[in-house]
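I hope you will forgive my troubling you with a question about protein structure. I am sending you one protein, given as its amino acid sequence and as whole-number tokens for its backbone shapes. Thank you for your consideration; the sequence and its tokens are set out here:
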Amino acid sequence: MDRTQGQPEPVEQPATAPVPPATAAAAPAPAAPASAPGGPGVARVVTLTAGDFTLTVNPVDGSEIEPRRPGTGGSAPAKRDAAGRAAREAAARPPVLPGPAAPTPPLLARDEERGRLVRLLGRGRSVRLTGPAGSGRSSLLDAVAAECTHLAPDGVVRLSGYGHQQPGELLYALYDAVYEAPLERPERTQLLARVRDIGAIVLLDDLEMGGAVLDELLRATPECAYLLAATPDVRAPSDDSHLEEIFLGGLGRADCVELLEAGVGRALTEEETAWAGDLRFASEGLPLRFVQAAALLRQRDERNLSSAEDEHDEPGVFDERPRDAEFVALPTLAEGAAPAELLASRVSESARAALRIASALGGELPHHAHLPALVGDTHADAAVAELLGCGLLTPVGTRYRLAAGVLRQLEEAGYGDTAAEEARTAARHYAWWTGHASVTPERVAAEADAVLAALAGADVVAAVLLARTAAPAFAASRHWEAWERVLRSGAEAARKAGEVAEQAYFHHELGVLALCEGRLDRARAELEASIGLKGALADKRGTVAGRRALALVADREKAGVEVSPPLRLEPPAPAPAGGAAEAVTTVLPAAAPAAPVTAVTAVVPVTPVAPVTPVVPVIGRSDSPTSLTEVFEEAFPLTPKSAPPAAPATVGAAAPARRTRPGRKPVLLAAAGALTVVVLGTVMALAMSGSDDPQTPAGGDGPAVSSTPTAGASAPGVPGTSGNDSAADPGTPAPEASDPGSPQSTLTPDPNQPPRPPSRKPVTPPPSQKPSSNGPTSPSPDPSTTPPTAPPTPTPTPTPIATTTPASPTATL
């Protein structure tokens, strides 16, 4: 009779009403769920403590996070006692499978390795057990665990390292196995402080990490002794880990024959013994190959109908057995080395359907309670025991997956052709199952690998639906690595499907997760993206929840910023011994608004023999400038000055610092500007006085001012004189030698006046011209009226600056 006959249709049950696990999963998945996972009365809200926060997992509007109230949580929970550890260990074992029990292969030729492992673990030493896939590492770990139960105060903890590349989730799994903390996930600091006190023997199977990552796991739990089972291709531990290495090899010829006879249940014939010897040579004596070979021999015996009680029976008329039995020969050596295709062809149809599902999920086989709904056969749950007896499955923690090499062999046989359809079916089934109110978060966490595999192979619509229902369950079960992977896959699927509301939900959850883990930059980015999407949808309630979480991010950022020490302006340290250059930074305070604070960095040679003396400006003269001409000359030199005489070391060392004074250059520029204004004013006054002279005609033909002023130039327009000579003014006395504008001043300098630098252009006396009777434009000069010109003065070397002092009272610029 059908086992589901007479049972009511699956309906939504409240969370407080327990439902047998097989009831919800064994029933076929309906075409559409009776109610949406987020419908009223179905939402599963869980509140737990995550570090300094209180996290409320709300599947409808998104998780809410707030600071933990003072006085709640924070204390270390109690450890499990012996009874609690035994109950948890029984729950961690693989479930009992329906149908006939599969034969358990014996553990052969491993007594020496088992005794050595027990001795090392009893001394507190950690061991790395290395062996190829199929060498019996898991069976050896089971035997060691049975003998090490009372060696450690916290007992024996079985963990699975499959799929873990970082030690974080392994430490949380160890914490959950030892401590009673159902609704708490401590932060990393609290986690490290609590696992440091754990003293247990940890059996870690299917290890996938090594090097510095493995060292981090060992340093975090110094009171634990580890038995790490890994394959040779896993990265080796570092030299500082001090792990004992034990290599697990294959079996001998006699052990292989004994294992094969135990699996078949009878003695082998000579032909089968020879075949077993060849198989041992080809497979290097791996026990998994002989478990599969025993299944091949059992299937051969069933097909040959060679049982002892049927050998001498004559078939009757109505006997369904054919009169001539079909003879099946021994498998070839190639079939014995890769037997997955041959074994799968001889199992039941439900078992082959289960293999197709496992191939579509990357080797992960769903729990046997899901197989009736996935396959469509009410007896499909018995296929797990059938496949396990054939050696096609291997236990991994509390679940099963395809054995090593089986997935590749099945894909080559065509079992992966319907992978997309099988993955979509599994995704829709898990979307209904994970959102059911009767399914606890712990059960969803146990199916994490199969759920993630279905999520990766499903289409975008099924992926969004599965991620939306599975994410809250993973969050409530504190399996946050799976929670993050589901959220990221769901966000990508929602983006491809155009589901803006679901995309905003996934970004909000990612922000809350990052905030709980202390990744503030990631939390801010995800929350801002979620707030923007919810604002576009006019989701006020979701926007408020996102802004609350974003405010917590801002508070955490402010609390995490360290206050920088105040700036202290201290005098430079004394010069060290040696003449090395030292960079000195001088900070000058602002004396006036026009002079801003300037930081000048200069490389000053350090003189070890001379003490630090105040900086004295050295301009190349002993006295300070007394006139604007000297200031202007020093500010704008035309040629480099000659080197000053030798000075003391202190003055020479301080001289370069004079050029870096920030206030010197503006003063010189101001003085130069004032000098220019004074000179221009004087020139303009002299020009105006010359134009008002009554002796000068108002409308002369020639220009009033010569374009090239010379030492003997005069105003034209006077009869009887040359065009370049001016008439004598009776009211104006002759210039004296002391006058700086007179020609004699160039010959006899006045000691009371500062020396006037010569002009840039050398002065050349004009050629002799004949006098003209027609006025100043006559080209012929008169030798009798032209005053004798002074001999040409040798032009000295140009000095830094040439002034514009006029040569005569009537000359202008």
